[in-house]
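>> received
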Amino acid sequence: ICNEYDSRADTGTWETAIEVSATDSTIQVDLYQVEANCCPTPDVDVTLDVDVITVDFTDVTNPDEVCDCVCDTDFSAEITSVDAGDYTVEVLYRGEAIDSAEVTVE
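>> returned
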């Protein structure tokens, strides 16, 4: 996962960023270029509060798997069976806010 090729490399964008999109009843959330442990056992916690969806990514769920390095890592989550409507998606990494985006599910 360390320094894995990302299509955004062609644009020179290597900062932490999010992309949120909706197709049918599914919301796709991508978090790019997060400084994370190089041996991630990725996990995601998703909560819904009315029209706010919070997506909290974490890199290491088992402390025995921690490597002695930090890499730029990408995370993704697919949220299915979402009711039609307008949502604010808040993206966090290890409990800290990264960014948010508005998305409409039709």
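>> The chain has no helices and seven strands.
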